[in-house]
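Model it.
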Amino acid sequence: MSKSGEMFLIMREADFNNLEIFTRSLFVHIEKRDSNEFENHKDDPNYCALKKAESKAKKNLQTYLFNKRHKQ
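Modeled.
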């Protein structure tokens, strides 16, 4: 006898809405999440440049605060 496992699926809302009611009723848990910001804008060069600058600024801030706490 095999163990009963769990499956985690990701699908578009439109595809989910096309499922039959019976099929939907088989799901134990359904959670809707908004789409990922990066996935929506990853092809936009301006967005990518701004995200890179944001990441660098965040790293610099964390380094500054660490050094300030440790008086380096």
